[in-house]
Design brief:
This is Polyketide cyclase. It contains three helices and nine strands, in the order βαββββββααββ. The chain is an alpha+beta fold. The protein has a single domain (2-31, 66-178), classed as Alpha-D-Glucose-1,6-Bisphosphate, Chain A, domain 4 (2-Layer Sandwich), CATH 3.30.530.20. The chain is globular. It has a nine-stranded antiparallel β-sheet with strand order 2-3-4-5-6-7-1-8-9, covered by helices on one side.
Length: 179
């Protein structure tokens, strides 16, 4: 399994950040490529989501299920169709990283584990002469850009002001982006 982790610090208490992240249907408003989110359930274990993404000439609906919640520290999920992938949000108090005048901060990490070969066999309709490995290569850069946009928008909503939000991206444990 390959692993991608995106980490940042949000200046809000863990419980508030957790509740915000649990509202998964709201994510569509933060992402340029997430077209829609359909939810079946209350956000807890067993809740199913259909997330429809569109990028370049590709449209894909990922079917996921929440597998575990541990308020306010963890939300875990898995992909239930096509792709072999799982992941989750991990939250930890980080008040020592809050600037002066800010009472609380939360270190937030999105961790995704996936098997690249499952993408090649997934029911993703690719244009002629386009290989799954080419698409996977392009998606890494897209994920960094998309991650930055989503993190900045979520942070602005949670904190009440827009700011530059440093993020760290790791792929298989190696830092590939740190700003």
């Amino acid at each position: 399994m390959q692993t991608v982790e995106v980490t940042t610090v949000i200046f809000a208490p863990p419980a508030r950040v957790y509740e915000f992240l649990l509202d998964f249907p709201g994510y569509a408003g933060y992402s340029e490529h997430l077209r829609s989110v359909e939810e079946r359930g209350d956000g807890g274990p067993g809740t199913e989501y259909a997330l429809t993404f569109a990028w370049w000439k590709l449209d894909y609906t990922a079917h996921t299920e929440v597998t575990e919640v541990e308020p306010p520290h963890r939300i875990a999920w898995r992909v239930t169709e096509d792709l072999n992938a799982r992941g989750g949000w991990q939250l930890a108090g980080a008040s020592d990283e809050a600037p002066e005048g800010v009472d609380a901060a939360t270190r937030v990490t999105l961790r995704v584990e996936y098997r690249p070969k499952s993408f090649e066999s997934a029911s993703v309709s690719l244009p002629p002469l386009v290989s799954p490995s080419w698409v996977l290569g392009k998606l890494t850069g897209l994920l960094v850009d998309e991650g930055r946009q989503v993190v900045e928008n979520v942070t602005a909503d949670l904190e009440g002001d827009r700011r530059h939000v440093p993020i760290e991206v790791r792929v298989d444990g190696d830092v590939v982006y740190d700003e």
